[in-house]
Amino acid sequence: MKTWADPIPAAVERLRAGGLVAFPTETVYGLGADALDPAAVAAIFRLKGRPADHPLIVHLPRSAPLEDWAREIPEAARDLAGRFWPGPLTLVLARRPRVPDAVTGGQDTVALRVPDHPLALELLAAFGSGIAAPSANRFGRVSPTRAEHVRAEFGAAAPLILDGGPCRVGLESTILDLSDAAPRLLRPGAVGARELEGVMGRPLAAEVAGAPRTPGALPAHYAPRARVILAAGAGEGLARARAEAARGARVGLLGAWQGALPAGVADLRLPAAPDAQARVLYDRLRQADRLGLEVVVALPPPAEGIGVALLDRLRRAAAKR
Ligand code: TXA
Ligand code: MG
To answer: Is the entire prediction scored with pTM above 0.85?
Structure first.
């Protein structure tokens, strides 16, 4: 009889030695290091090619007291953590001095979340402390939602990877900043604004334009190599894809449409339900790269549920680079 070795002890050992471990979460795969070890955290930035002033999310074991990491914990943070953790919500709070600058990009705040994936929770429980982890992709590229995406992303430089299968949500966590008086949504995700407001019993601050503190908030991000064109509707998108094919471009159509695929257009069809679209979006964008497409015409996602987050990522993928 074949027995499988438990991958967790080796992963914990790697983390304790200052090494990197890629692990699954319910949203996307993370590239993790000991959050209290600045040298280990620096290795994440090197491998990703990420600018040092872009802070990382600290992933916590479910039992970790928030006060170990945050110095001021508003009631809303406790309520939201109680309601959504483990889950796809990241809270930005005033940091404790022990959280290294390497993690926070020198900011006085720290982003925290408890991920909802059995392997991640097992890893965190066994490690017994916070794991700093951005998405396990090179800077500016599409987040990985399967272990093979991580392997493809880093090739020979790939870290130890825990394979937890495809991610259930498929888009990065919602980020809510609670470090100021007014709660601010920094990145939309599976936990929607209305749900947050419902639990907090107060409205979110209107989005402020200005210098983004989050790389996901840079206009061009989450992008495949192909130029992405976000169509206003299905009719326009189909026409645009046909026109690109007619001028000889290697074009793909991304979205849920009725009827046949236009001739000469690569099939990047998405399921109709918003949740299902979120789950496979990044896999389709990677497929576009594998097919060597020059242009991807994306149809607008359904304007419900996770559709807000889907539209946000498609807009960023379509932003000028
Ligand atoms: O779902 C997720 O959040 C995934 C999984 C692995 O947990 N992680 C993820 O990490 O998407 P990353 O680094 O790709 O995006 C984290 C975002 C960045 O946009 C970062 O700037 C922001 O969180 N962030 C981290 N610390 C922050 C802070 N103190 N203030 C504001 N934003 C912060
Ligand atoms: Mg990322």
So the answer is: yes
